[in-house]
Specification:
By secondary structure, the protein is of the alpha+beta class. The chain contains 11 helices and 12 strands. It has 2 domains: about 1-85; about 90-320, Aminoglycoside 3'-phosphotransferase, Chain: A, domain 2, CATH 3.90.1200.
Length: about 325
């Protein structure tokens, strides 16, 4: 079975899974050479070993002998590399369980405890361009014209308003961002913390952190958990999102003021913004119309969620 993402292919075999990085290059990612793909395969295993047990196994070669391709057999000339992992049951993937209504409150509490333990022990980041998040937020403007055509609505107005509020939030809260860095809340986190990267076996197993760009991983812990909470919101489970945040914050108090609560909402808007942009890129690259429609549908969902968060922030800023 083959699973394709925007940046990789995953081959699911009987007992193992093999993740192959696509030979691509973006401003934020460079898998363009064989050497770089091998390096990032090795880095993926190193980073994910921080919170996984017995999932990541090794980097293996993809080889060719005459007209036959081999993986993990070291026969022939090396064509590429793959990350070899233990195959996990797809029916225990958290996003699948959410769709089937098989997640209970105890699962959320257990997950919060796992993430808290990881964040507490993650290396502290002392130097960071903490205002760069606003530049990343603005980047969605590049997709506005394209999305206007497909969504048949004034996406440009929605995005322009979101950028306006984001910039206003920056003006009001630059000192808050600095204080978060100064008080050690910036850590070497996961960076891609959402339900598709979590298995419940039944205990939570988190995997697939960002390895291709340290900047995307070295973030405020609030930014890290905002992705998961935004994802739960997108599944229509605000109760799970609120429960996760409440228990996480009880165990590791990272929201101590109303201002930091608004920061968390801002990070959720940023995460929805990024998911909208990623799916816009998928829509652009889609070969099949069905794939394009699916990606555009995801864009719409995340834009609506971003707009909801932004309207909340806008009202809060007006009161200030």
């Amino acid at each position: 079975m083959l699973i394709e993402t925007h940046i990789s292919w995953v081959l699911l075999c009987k007992h193992f899974a093999y993740k192959i990085k696509k030979p691509i290059q973006y401003p934020f990612l460079d898998f363009s050479t064989l050497e770089k793909r091998k390096y990032y395969c090795e880095k993926e295993i190193e980073l994910n070993s921080r919170f996984t047990q017995n999932i990541y196994i090794s980097v293996v070669a993809i080889t060719q002998n005459k007209e036959t391709l081999f993986i993990d057999d070291n026969i022939g000339n090396i064509l590429d590399y793959a990350v070899k992992m233990r195959k996990l049951p797809l029916n225990r993937q958290m996003d699948m369980l959410l769709l089937k209504g098989k997640i209970v409150y105890a699962d959320i509490l257990n997950l919060a405890e796992v993430i808290v333990d990881f964040h507490k022990h993650a290396p502290v980041i002392h130097k960071k361009d903490y205002l760069d998040v606003f530049v990343k937020f603005d980047a969605i403007e590049q997709e506005a014209e394209f999305l206007n055509f497909y969504l048949k609505k004034d996406v440009e107005a929605v995005i322009a308003n979101a950028i306006r509020v984001s910039r206003a939030f920056k003006e009001e809260n630059e000192e808050l961002f600095k204080s978060r860095l100064d008080t050690f809340f910036y850590r070497d986190c996961h960076g891609d913390l959402h339900s598709r990267n979590i298995f419940l076996l039944p205990s939570p197993h988190v995997f697939d952190c960002i390895e291709f760009n340290d900047d995307y991983r070295e973030i405020d812990v609030l930014n890290d958990i905002a992705f998961l909470c935004m994802d739960l919101d997108a599944f229509g489970r605000r109760d799970f999102s609120d429960l996760f945040l409440s228990w996480y914050n009880t165990l590791f108090p990272v929201i101590r003021t109303p201002q930091e609560q608004l920061l968390f909402v801002y990070y959720k808007s940023y995460r929805a913004n990024v998911r909208a942009k990623v799916n816009a890129l998928r829509a652009r690259d889609a070969v099949l119309e069905a794939d394009r429609k699916k990606a555009v549908s995801e864009v719409k969902k995340y834009l609506n969620l971003m707009e909801e968060y932004i309207l909340y922030l806008d009202k809060a800023l007006i009161k200030v």
